[in-house]
Amino acid sequence: MEHINLVETFSEFKEFKNIDRETMMRIIEDVFRHMLIKKYGSDENFNVIVNIDKGDLEIWRNREIVEDGDIEDENKQIAYSEAIKIEPDFEVGEEVSEEIRLMDFGRREILTIRQNLMSKIQEYEKDNIFKKYKEKIGEIITGEVYQVWKKEILVLDDEYIELTLPRSEQIPSDFYRKGDTIRAVVSKVDMRNNTPVIVLSRTSPAFLERLFESEVPEVYDGLITIRNIVRVPGERAKIAVESYDDRIDPVGACVGMKGSRIHGIVRELRNENIDVINFTNNPSLYITRALSPAKISSISINEGEKRADVYMKPDQVSLAIGKGGYNIKLASRLTGYEIDVYRDSDVDNEDVDLQEFSDEIDQWIIDELKAIGCDTARSVLDLSVDELVNRTDLEEETIREVVRILRAEFE
């Protein structure tokens, strides 16, 4: 009965942990053989028979019958007088097989066997999880939020394996509750203290690339190649695509009819603004496309220093820079060039719309100035600091900083 209870216990454990039958049998046999070696000095003359399905375990010791007094190894030999007690027909030189019962090991040894089995199975399971997810690095995983902490989220996959999504790998506007479904890419897999640690990411460019593969069949099939991806998670992303088939418009295919394909990706990324552009080996054209939606008047490239001076009309500068400067930063990272934006020299002395300074002056300040009729840089500079203070609700220090920025435009 103790035999059966022992094996059935770990048979249930096997099914819960999803360890295959052959592996479970091998683990149980290895643990018992280790105990036999410890108890008898060798396991060479033992047969260990494990049947996981039935919950059966049998251990048989095989010994050669020798004349009384001729025993050299009690583990491998048995005296004739002892052998005929088992079976009267035995003769010297024959082999005797005896069953070793679990109770023959003793309580302490049985406890050790249980502990070793548990340890071996857990070790195998951990190694299996590590190998499985090591092969999944860069793939999207769908899981369920199990616990939400300040610095990370604990996620369970469909096999109840624990995955971690650190705060640093979450999109800033991500918000999850326990039980929510979450999608992320496997970013890193490590072994810490003999335990696999699987780290997920929603900010990795690989996550955006996998999303395009799932939404755009041409990308999945290799008809469209993603050459580069850069992101400011939750804010903006730029992706350069290329097709070797002239019949395929890579940008159109990625965006889809009326944005049907890209819409799901944008929603998954918390309304991240995604710019899809055609890749080209022409640096000037590549930079021009990367700065979209701004329109460039001219461009000067220094290949040695990997720098590009871009000139454009004043009303295009704020578009090139973008909200928070994300557009120009991402364009630089996408193309590999340090990009500097300049207003065309032929309009340097003209007035500039106040809105063009939104990258340097807060919008609420611009709105305050517009409220008193100052829509352009020169209309603000035409008024004294005191007059601006009296006519607006702005602090003098704020107005002096605005004046400094506007004057720099015309110097």
From TrEMBL:
Residues 138-203 form the S1 motif domain. The keyword RNA-binding applies. GO terms for cellular component: cytosol. It is found in: Cytoplasm. It holds the Pfam family S1. InterPro entries: KH_dom-like_a/b, KH_NusA_2nd, KH_sf_prok-type, NA-bd_OB-fold, NusA_N_sf, S1_domain, TF_NusA, TF_NusA_bacterial. Signal peptide: none annotated. GO terms for biological process: DNA-templated transcription termination; transcription antitermination. Keywords: Cytoplasm, RNA-binding, Transcription, Transcription antitermination, Transcription regulation, Transcription termination. GO terms for molecular function: DNA-binding transcription factor activity; RNA binding. CDD domains: KH-II_NusA_rpt1, KH-II_NusA_rpt2, S1_NusA. Its main location: cytoplasm. Belongs to the NusA family. HAMAP family: NusA_B. Participates in both transcription termination and antitermination. Monomer. Binds directly to the core enzyme of the DNA-dependent RNA polymerase and to nascent RNA. This is Transcription termination/antitermination protein NusA. It comes from Lentimicrobium saccharophilum. The lineage of its organism: Bacteria, Pseudomonadati, Bacteroidota, Bacteroidia, Bacteroidales.
